[in-house]
Design brief:
Blueprint: E1 3-4, E2 34-37, E3 52-57, E4 64-70, E5 80-85, H1 97-108, H2 113-130, H3 138-147, H4 153-170, H5 181-213
Antiparallel strand pairs: 1-5, 2-3, 3-4, 4-5
Helix pairs in contact: 1-2, 1-5, 2-4, 2-5, 3-4, 4-5
């Protein structure tokens, strides 16, 4: 996916790409030097406007970020960046507000794994509460979601893993107080997947039914 950039304070393709966070490792204010640019406009067979391309490497994680530019090249005619690939991930708008805020915070703190794990755990807990599972502990809510066939056994097992991962830094576990970046990333990925399963797909189906029938889907 990409994100279209607003044209206030346009950024142009140059030696360095300026982003608030790396879309891969989420480090703040990443250093993103250019490692490739197309040098000339890349034409399209469908007749749409040609574009310029540049690739930048994050010096923190080594991952690549691609910038798409439009208009001229070089000097004052350097192309304005209109899209970045991949974009900075954000929680889907179809998620309940509380879960969406927690998940956005998890995305933005992936460079701080303990914080990301805690926020991912909070996002999962918030989603379960939105499904009407409001009593008891997170442990109980996960098991109740399984009992009601809201989630599968595999999802319940993963949810418990996320719960335990969030508890370690939250309660300063004596033996394993911290989570690794990979553990945090897996927790965030589960929270994202759970949100897609419980809310985003349902919303898309309802919109599809509404478009097909012309009526509001119950």
């Amino acid at each position: 996916m990409s994100t279209l950039l607003k044209h206030s304070g346009d950024q142009r393709i140059s030696d360095y790409l300026k982003l608030s966070r790396c879309p891969h490792c989420a480090v703040a204010q990443p250093l993103l030097p250019q490692v490739f640019h197309s040098g000339k406009a890349v034409t399209r067979g469908d007749g749409a406007a040609a574009s310029f391309w540049a690739v930048h490497a994050c010096t923190n994680c080594g991952s690549m970020v691609t910038a798409k530019g439009m208009s001229g090249w070089g000097g004052a005619g350097q192309p304005t960046i209109v899209a970045i690939f991949p974009d900075g991930t954000s929680a889907h708008q179809d998620l309940p507000e509380s879960a969406r805020i927690f998940l956005d915070q998890a995305y933005s703190s992936l460079d701080a794994p303990d914080a990301a794990a805690v926020m991912a755990g909070s996002a999962v807990d918030s989603m379960l509460k939105e499904m009407g599972l409001e009593t008891g502990s997170v442990y109980n809510r996960i098991n109740e979601a399984l009992a009601q066939n809201i989630i599968t056994q595999g999802m319940a097992d993963w949810a418990h893993s996320v719960r335990l991962g969030a508890n370690r830094p939250r309660h300063a576990d004596k033996d394993r107080p911290h989570v690794t970046q990979e553990e945090a990333r897996q927790s965030v990925e589960f929270a994202e997947a759970l949100g897609q399963f419980l809310f985003v797909l349902t919303a898309r189906i309802q919109r599809g039914l509404k478009d097909a029938t012309g009526d509001d889907a119950e």
